[in-house]
Amino acid sequence: MTFRMLPMKKLLLDLKISRPGLWFPTIWIYLVPFGNQESFWTSCLFWLGLFFVTFPLNYLVYGLNDFNDEEADAVNDRKGNFLFGAKAPRKHLDGLLKKITLIILPFVLVFTYLSGVNMFLLLVFMILVNILYNFKPFRVKERPPFEILIQVGYVTTAFFATELNNLEMLPWQTLVYLSLFAFQAHIAGEIMDIEPDLASGKRTTATLLKRKNSKFLMLVILLLESFLVWYWFQDIVLASFLGVFALWLVLDVFVFFKDKPYTLPQMKLFGYAINLSALASMAWVLYSGNLLIT
Predict the structure, then answer these.
(1) Which of 75, 125, 186, 245 has the greatest number of beta carbons closer than 10 A?
(2) Can you give the pTM of this predicted structure?
C-alpha cells in the first residue's frame, strides 16, 4: 500500500506545483481569440491547445518559480494547496527541471509539426521569458517594477491560440487590455505575499510600495481596464464587471481591511471568487466577441 501511495503523492504534489487555482489567466487569454468563431469546440486542435495551457504550461511557469523560491514558499502560509501552489521539499524540487523538460518537449515537437517554425519560435520565447524571470543573473522577479512588466509574457498565450488554430491576429487594443489584465493579476498575488516575501528578503513592487499603495496601483489598472474596455470595445458588461471589482478594492482599502493583511481563509475565499468571476467573464467574452471588435 505504501509503495502505491508514494507515486500518487508525488503526482498530486506536481499538480499542486502547477497551481490549478491560478490556471485561469492562461485559459482566459487562450480563449479570447475564439470570440468570433463558430463551432470552435469541434476542433481537436482547440482542445489540444486548451489542455496545454492548463497543466503543462502552468507546470512550466510555476515549476520554474518554485524551483528558485523554496525559502519564500516555506514561510508562505497560503502555499501548500491546489489553489495557490505547493510547498515542495528540496528533494522533489531537485528533479523538477527534468520533469518540466519531459512534459514540455513533446508539446513543442507536436505543435511545431502542426504549425511550423513560427510556433517553434513562439514556444521557445515563452520558455525564455520564464527563464529570465526566475534564474540568475537576470531573475527579473526580484527587480521591481520589471517583475510586473514582464507579465506581458502571458499575452503570448493568445498568439499561441491564433497560431495553432489559424485564427486572425488580435487587434492591438486587445493585446493592451490583456497585458493590463496580466499586470493586475500579478499585483494581486504580490499583495497577498507581502509578509512572506519580506521574511525571506524577496524584493517585489508590493514589498517596496507597501500594502495600501500596491492596492492603489491595482485600482488604477482596474479603472484603466474598465475605461478602455468601454471606450475601445463598447462592452458595458465587462466594463461594469471591472468597475465592480474596482469598487470592492476601494471598500477594501478604506473600510474593510485597510492596511491589514488577509487571513488564510480570506485569501482562499478571494481565490475561489476570482475563479468563479473568471469563468463568468470567459463565458461572456466568448459569447459576445466584443474584445475582437474595434
Answers:
(1) 186
(2) 0.94
